């Protein structure tokens, strides 16, 4: 769609948007349901989760039976819910970069690449932390490190998302500059 911006309304019609949203909701629900069912069937040795949120991996650390099947299901889930969307996003950004390189004007190229860079920063922060959590090396594992990375992808990346996008807005930047000038004048 990036390559055909004038066709956006034809390509992304209401039915397609509704179908994509419904597909995401159904896939998320089915993934959560599957992980919940296979996790709650396990025998737990401990009752305290050393984590700030319910994470499948945090619960699996409490189990005192073989969890091979659960690990296989987590890897399958990671592929479908994390790696597949991440690959599609990166594939899309590859097309965006090619489209940007075709632009002749330096000003338009700079603006487009700036927008693309801010989007890609948020995508890399979220997917990078998530992939590290679920596919990272277990040799570097520590409960505290795991909690920090999970906190980053669950709270940090979504919180930075509006900040990064709003700083691209001229009015927001002007208001921020005025605020910083007032703050600087008082100091």
TrEMBL record:
Keywords: Cell membrane, Membrane, Sensory transduction, Transducer, Transmembrane, Transmembrane helix. It is a multi-pass membrane protein. InterPro entries: GPCR_Rhodpsn_7TM, Olfact_rcpt. Residues 1-165 form the G-protein coupled receptors family 1 profile domain. The chain crosses the membrane at residues 6-30, 51-69, 75-104, 116-136, 148-167. One of its GO terms (cellular component) is plasma membrane. It comes from the Eukaryota. It is found in: Cell membrane. The keyword Transmembrane applies. Gene3D superfamilies: Rhodopsin 7-helix transmembrane proteins (1.20.1070.10). The keyword Metal-binding does not apply. PANTHER family: OLFACTORY RECEPTOR (PTHR26453). This is G-protein coupled receptors family 1 profile domain-containing protein. It comes from Balaenoptera physalus.
